[in-house]
Amino acid sequence: MLSKIHSQIGFFFFFLLFLDLDLILGGQSRSRIDTLFHIPN
Fold first, then answer.
1. Which of 10, 6, 41, 29 is nearest to 20 (CA)?
2. Which terms are listed as keywords in the entry (predicted)?
């Protein structure tokens, strides 16, 4: 149970790190992320 929660938290932080890395790189793949997850601007 605890390991499952830890894996979800790890995935969440990995996703945030991925978004931060995308912003650091200039947001070139930002449009692809928007099309994948349908994030409004």
1. 29
2. Membrane, Transmembrane, Transmembrane helix
